[in-house]
Design goal:
two-stranded antiparallel ribbon; 2 strands; mainly alpha; 470 residues
């Protein structure tokens, strides 16, 4: 396993540090310029749309109807979890406090990329049996007419979400259970593998209903806990802010990694958490019934802000106020210990116990959701029951492997597959960028007159490839 970890870590370093990070930043800046800073100048419109997004849009086929808010909620549910609790901790432990600043930067710029990919997913969506379906595989196939490219993405997202990200989720659960209750990772991993198999082989509806209640409660509870801890340490906030900015620009390197390490870790872990440009969120964005593709693009851009600027920042301030990031801790264990320290000696295990329970629900529901991302894309490639059965067994085994493997191995594996998937998606949305610009221009011109409604005749050259808008 040590040799495998070494190989995976080296591959992840090359792909992430020298390829993904520069291209991700370049794409984010490019879409910010092309859209004239849509994520900033239309922030008010994002909030207005979110407030009105709970109702279904009667301008479109109500039979294939998932509301804009439901699609937003699905994407938030997939974002909020391990990346917010364990990913932020790893970024700070390796890159120092400056990693937080670069996390903010990639969220602010990356929101434009999230806007572009989600808008494209809406434009090229198709009608499914119960709702609209779509995502990068669909806009690559119907927008670029390149099936091999579309299939490549479908394979990469299956590897990333069905295997790599699920190994991270399982590792985080096992680590949290060991830290709080001293449970052996092997026992926890076996239980997770069996539970995963039981759910993906027939119980997803019951778990989905349960998760709809529990996960939001846990997310709100975590935010409240974070606010309480920060309030208890409010005198340290100016010091923490200074620490973040000084370390981000190399003023104080005694408290963490170099500027380069801080930048890379901030962007990598920020991407893992908010998924901007990665190609996952468009799968959820495409399901919404809206009157104009830009509406869901704007709402999904707001999701990036919610994830990184709010929830990730909560974790960062808890950890930095505690000072424990200098003590050699990493991952979810660092977050747990920081919360305990923030609540004070009299509450020595309250915070970590809550985080353990929360991370179980966050991460396990993500395992199930991630599995279905993979299944959906496998069915895009070839709708075979045998293929799906084999995938189920392999996905469950990967959950076990992730639970017992080292933290470096599972993060390295996730970084490799995430980088390949993201590069595939970035190339596609750059190639289709002209449609994003036209759609945004059409939306803003109609917005002055009332509620925008998109029609396929706006882009006659692709009217046949956008049947949902006829």
């Amino acid at each position: 396993m040590d040799k495998a970890t070494e190989i995976v870590t080296a591959a992840a370093s090359v792909l992430s540090d020298w390829v993904l990070v520069p291209l991700l930043l370049a794409a984010a800046v490019a879409f910010t310029i092309l859209t004239r800073g849509v994520q900033f100048r239309m922030a008010g419109e994002m909030l207005r749309l979110l407030a009105a997004s709970g109702r279904r849009d009667t301008a479109r086929d109500s039979h294939h109807s998932i509301s804009s808010f439901q699609a937003f909620a699905v994407s938030i549910a997939s974002r909020v979890g391990t990346g917010n609790l364990a990913g932020v901790a790893s970024a700070i432990a390796i890159g120092g406090p400056g990693a937080v600043f670069w996390m903010w930067v990639i969220a602010l710029l990356g929101a434009a990329t999230a806007f572009a990919e989600s808008t494209l997913a809406q434009l090229f969506k198709r009608k499914g049996a119960k709702s609209f379906i779509g995502g990068p595989a669909y806009y690559i196939l119907h927008g670029l007419h390149n099936r091999p490219w579309a299939v490549t993405f479908a394979i990469l997202i299956t590897l990333t979400f069905g295997f790599a990200f699920n190994s991270v989720q399982a590792n985080t659960i096992a680590d949290a259970m060991h830290t709080s209750f001293a449970l052996p990772a092997e026992w926890v991993s076996v239980a997770l593998m069996l539970l995963t198999l039981a759910i993906i082989c027939g119980g997803i509806q019951r778990i989905s209903r349960f998760s709809e209640i529990i996960v939001p409660v846990m997310a709100i509870g975590y935010i409240i806990l974070a606010v309480v801890i920060v309030a208890m340490n409010i005198h340290r906030v100016p010091e923490v802010l200074a620490l973040i900015f000084e370390n981000a620009f190399g003023v104080n390197q005694a408290v963490g990694g170099s500027v380069g390490v801080a930048l890379v870790m901030g962007i990598k872990r920020g991407l893992f958490s908010n998924e901007a440009g990665e190609g996952s969120t468009p799968n959820a964005a495409a399901t919404a019934a809206v009157s104009h593709p830009v509406k869901q693009g704007l709402i999904q851009a707001l999701g990036v802000y919610t994830d990184t600027l709010v929830i990730c920042s909560c974790t960062a301030f808890i950890i930095l106020c505690s000072g424990l990031y200098l003590d050699g801790h990493d991952g979810i264990a660092l977050t747990q210990k920081a919360i305990d320290a923030g609540l004070g000696a009299g509450n020595s295990t309250v915070g970590s116990t809550f985080v353990t329970i929360a991370i179980f629900f966050f991460a396990f529901t993500s395992i199930i959701a991630n599995y279905y991302y993979g299944e959906t894309n496998l069915r895009f490639i070839h709708n075979s029951d045998r293929l799906i059965y084999a995938y189920r067994v392999a996905a469950a085994v990967m959950v076990y492997i992730g639970g017992v493997a080292s933290l470096d191995f599972v993060w390295g594996f996730a970084d490799v597959t995430m980088a390949l998937m993201t590069l595939c998606n970035l190339a596609a949305i750059v190639a289709l960028a002209k449609y994003v610009v036209v759609l945004l221009r059409d939306y803003t011109s109609q917005r002055r007159l009332g509620d925008p409604v998109y029609r396929a005749s706006t882009l006659p050259e692709i009217a046949d490839e956008t049947p949902c808008w006829k």
